Amino acid sequence: MQILNIQNSNFIKNTFVLTLGTAIAQVLPMLLYPALGRLYTPEQFAVLAAITSFVSIISTFVTGKYENAIFIADTDKDAVCLFSVALVMSLSICFILTIPLYVFSDSFTVYLGFSTLDSWIQICISASFFMAIFNIYNEWCVRYEYFKRLSINKIVNSAGISLFKLVFAYTNFANIGLVAGDWIGRFFSSVVCLFSIKQLDTSCFCDIQISDIINVLRKYREYPMFNMPAQLLNSIGISSPIFILNYFYNQTDVGYYAMTMSVLTLPVNIISLSLRDVFRKKASDILIVEGSFKSFFVKTLFILFVVTSILSICVYPILPWLFKFVLGSQWGNSGVFAQYFIPMIALDFIAMSLSGSLLVSKKLKYNFYWQVYYVILTILTLYIAGTCSLNISNTLIIYSIARSSAYVLLIYISFKSSINFCVSILAII
Known about the structure:
The chain is mainly α. The chain has two domains: 28-220, no CATH class; 232-429, no CATH class. The protein has 17 helices and no strands. The protein has helices at 2-39, 42-61, 76-103, 105-112, 121-143, 147-168, 177-201, 210-219, 222-248, 251-290, 294-315, 319-327, 332-354, 356-360, 364-387, 392-418, 425-428. Helix 3 (76-103) packs antiparallel against helix 5, helix 11 (294-315) packs antiparallel against helix 13 and helix 12 (319-327) crosses helix 13 (332-354).
């Protein structure tokens, strides 16, 4: 009983630390949105969205997702090797990608429908490396319960990116301020991550042998085989709407969409990822002792559902007014789009917070299957709506419904994994 009380106390403490950190990380950039919304145009936000989408896609496969195995590594030596593998892989692959993307940048960006991206391809590659460093460091912090440092780094990352965007708006580079600010902010955050590692754990990297590296590559091969493709598909599913919408609709509408998703998903992603980190740590501890964390999963699901439902009902009526008031009159359409996405965002928050179940139970292939379904559903929904010449509003409503159904399925799969049950794909479908 005493042990359980200690575990619960640590869980509450870690949750508080991460929640506080992520709350600050959420508030700081959100405070700057009123200024950014008035300093930059919807078209400029559309270009930024395209670049960040491209960066997100690249960053998901350059590490082979070996960093996700750091958390559950059997030994500290394995964790150190996984950290090193993920870092070296990301640097090497990003370097290799610079050549073909430089040669074919013109045709590539035109094909995507964003010819203005041509000069930013190399920026995308380096920013992907910075994002990879950030993700690797986060996994390291979760394993060793450096939750305070993890919170600080989240604050540095989100605040740095936003502040640099604001600064560039008042320089001679204002026309590229959003992109330049995003890049410098990510660079600064990655430097902080590497410096923190050097301060804390440098000595543990000194005894790594080539044989150790080869061993972890084999031992944790499931991550590049299943988790990496799954995450890549997830990034494609999230990012593809930017490019599909740009193909069927004008760039201004794409900018409205980008702002809507940025405002809604920034706090949701930060908080849900933090909750997922703490959730999977607690779930892992319970699984070791009890062989199942079903009860913990159900309790967490209930709390998340109640909280998101109340918040959704409260904010829905005022979203159009809120976007105009906070960001400026030109962003009223973004507020209307936000209403379409409320159910989708709420379910996204719940599903992402609980998706750590798949990592804890090592059922990565089911996450991969879900991602395949998610990407196909997203692309087909938007493409069919576009080819049917639906207006942007109807297209986004249909898109919201489709994505909501995908998140319900993910919650179900996560629940099944919590009882250590081998989920049948036929049963899921």
